[in-house]
Backbone:
């Protein structure tokens, strides 16, 4: 997290490169179909594997929501934030959702042929690596943000006007 | 707020909050209808069998490049029914701004107020206090009889005159773009302040 606000996360080139390397390692060791890293509130950070034609933003939002709901359930029942991971078993693939500290969520989609135990081992190792990256995100990323030209208030409004179509697009 | 300089992305999260049946999902449906498919995701809805929102609706807009960044706006609704309080709190997590969708009918003022107070409490549980978080109020259903005036509504919620209040009839798309534009501008203003601090 950056040090400039409660909810602001700024990722720089160096951190993104480290994240991509970790995701690539998971892909290689588990034959995963897709690996995604999102912020804990559902914003995509990085995606590896097959995701053409997939609503990647929607997947990240759902993965983060799924973990948040399970954590809330655990908190209500057990009065502690004890849920770190969820495993969803499917017909053709298994989904593992794991928290990465408090800031991020990792989603791994592995083929059913791959043993769940091995996926779990690889994911836990990857989470340790990603937590290390997450701890470096704040200060370095903030420096890049301050050097970059700022997005203007009117600029974002005009950008919305540009994609807005009067009448129904369907 | 999330900025990724490697991917040149600025991702903003906006939550449409409000009482049951105030028109939160209708706002997202209208936005989905008015944005070219190449600039948005499909509308994702987690609904009950009665077609009511169970967890959230989700829509992502991809705006054109601004100063080298590609802004993506993630829009969420909360479920309005009273028993989904815990879910509403979860959806608010990490939000950059809120569009509060109120039902303009006088008979729904109690529901509006309860929802408003609950929202403030949920945000406070994340350490977010009012004023501070970008907020726009949409007074929806202005085409119905027995509606409250914007001034009365402001007084009831204790809103400052600076807080944007937009009148709308979301079912026909009126007053849907304005609060979205307004909240994006508020969020970007806040981002600039944070980076300058």
Residues:
């Amino acid at each position: 997290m950056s040090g400039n606000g409660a909810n602001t996360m700024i990722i720089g080139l160096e951190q993104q490169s480290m994240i991509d390397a970790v995701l690539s390692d998971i892909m290689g060791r588990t034959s995963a179909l897709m690996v995604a890293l999102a912020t804990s509130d559902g914003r995509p950070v990085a995606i590896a594997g097959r995701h053409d034609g997939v609503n990647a933003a929607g997947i990240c939002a759902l993965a983060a929501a799924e973990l948040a709901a399970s954590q809330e359930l655990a908190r209500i029942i057990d009065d502690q934030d004890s849920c770190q991971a969820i495993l969803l078993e499917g017909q053709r693939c298994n989904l593992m959702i794991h928290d990465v500290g408090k800031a991020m969520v990792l989603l791994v989609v592995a083929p059913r042929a791959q043993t769940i135990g091995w996926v779990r081992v690889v994911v836990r190792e990857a989470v340790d690596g990603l937590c290390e990256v997450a701890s470096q995100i704040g200060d370095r990323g903030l420096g890049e943000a301050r050097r970059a030209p700022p997005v203007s208030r009117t600029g974002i409004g005009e950008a919305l006007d540009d994609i807005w179509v009067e009448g129904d697009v369907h | 707020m999330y900025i990724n300089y490697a991917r040149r992305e600025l991702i903003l999260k906006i939550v449409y909050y409000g009482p049951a049946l105030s028109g939160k999902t209708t706002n997202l449906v209208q936005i989905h209808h008015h944005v070219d498919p190449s600039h948005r995701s499909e509308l994702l809805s987690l609904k009950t069998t009665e077609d009511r929102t169970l967890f959230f609706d989700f829509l992502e807009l991809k705006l054109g490049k601004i100063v080298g960044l590609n802004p993506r706006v993630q829009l969420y609704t909360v479920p309005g029914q009273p028993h989904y309080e815990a879910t509403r709190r979860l959806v608010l997590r990490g939000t950059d701004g809120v569009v509060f969708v109120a039902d303009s009918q006088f008979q729904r003022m109690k529901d509006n107020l309860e929802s408003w107070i609950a929202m403030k409490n949920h945000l406070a549980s994340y350490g977010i206090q009012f004023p501070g978080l970008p907020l726009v109020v949409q007074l929806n259903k202005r085409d119905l009889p027995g509606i409250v005036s914007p001034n009365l509504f402001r007084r009831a919620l204790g809103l400052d005159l600076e807080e944007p209040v937009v009148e709308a009839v979301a079912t026909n798309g009126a007053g849907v773009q304005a609060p979205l534009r307004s909240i994006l501008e508020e969020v970007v203003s806040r981002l600039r302040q944070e980076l300058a601090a």
In short: Residues 177-196 of chain B form the longest helix (20 residues). Strands of chain B lie at 2-4, 9-17, 44-47, 53-62, 70-77, 97-103, 135-140, 165-167.
